[in-house]
Design brief:
This protein is of the alpha+beta class. It is built from 5 helices and 5 strands. It has one domain. A hairpin with a 2-residue loop joins strand 2 and strand 3. The relative contact order is 0.17.
């Protein structure tokens, strides 16, 4: 009986030792990502490492679009470009709405009139299509991702989009023109729209002067 017990204990210990060395489960959380190629083959431009995706330099607005996970290079670049164009347009519209609100707040107006004018202007901005968005640069990393279970190769694409001041101005002017047409029958709103538009462009001139 003692021999049987000893044999069972030895066998159990052997199985445990075998499992600890040869039957150990892989940990899928342990992984590494390595850049194996860049396109073009140069160090990453400064805009790639920026902490913010959207920024302004002088009177030009920029947005960095990204896309990853694609095994096709051109598909990754197209996805990043689409993201940059759409996101830049939304960011510019947000700026226009915010600066319009500041210009409106600087005027004396009745709450009902101001609220009506803001709603009309915001709707006009939302319905506009931003033209003039240009893709200025692209930078792509080809990545090798490894873990204990598998490995894969895919692309991470960065695209820099921008819009010039003249296109920004065209968007804002179109929004004001649409707004003035919609409120033409309301004298209070019409007058307030004229005052707000004047203040808006004064603000824009101040911003431009600050960058000179």
């Amino acid at each position: 009986m003692k021999k049987v017990c000893v044999f069972v204990c030895v066998l159990s210990c052997g199985l445990l030792a075998a499992c600890s060395s040869g039957c150990r489960k892989a940990d899928p959380d342990l992984f590494a990502v390595q850049v194996i190629e860049t396109i073009p083959q140069v160090p990453a431009p400064d805009w790639v490492a920026k902490t913010q995706e959207f920024w302004q330099e002088k009177t030009r607005y920029y947005y960095r679009g990204t896309a990853e996970g694609f095994t096709n290079l051109e598909a990754a670049k197209r996805a990043a470009s689409a993201n940059a164009r759409i996101s830049l347009a939304e960011q510019v519209k947000t700026i226009v709405r915010e600066e319009f609100s500041r210009a409106l707040e600087a005027s004396a107006y009745e709450a009902a009139t101001g609220g009506y004018l803001k709603d009309v202007f915001f709707s006009a901005v939302e319905n506009l299509t931003l033209s003039g968005v240009a893709i200025r640069q692209s930078y792509v990393q080809r990545l090798l991702e490894r873990n204990e279970l598998s490995e894969r190769v895919y692309y991470r694409a960065y695209v820099l989009a921008s819009i010039e001041q003249k296109d920004f101005t065209r968007l804002v002017q179109a929004a004001f023109n649409d707004t003035k047409q919609q409120v033409a029958a309301n004298k209070s709103a019409k007058d307030l729209a004229a005052v707000t538009e004047k203040r808006f462009w004064q603000q824009q001139q101040s911003i431009a002067n600050a960058y000179e």
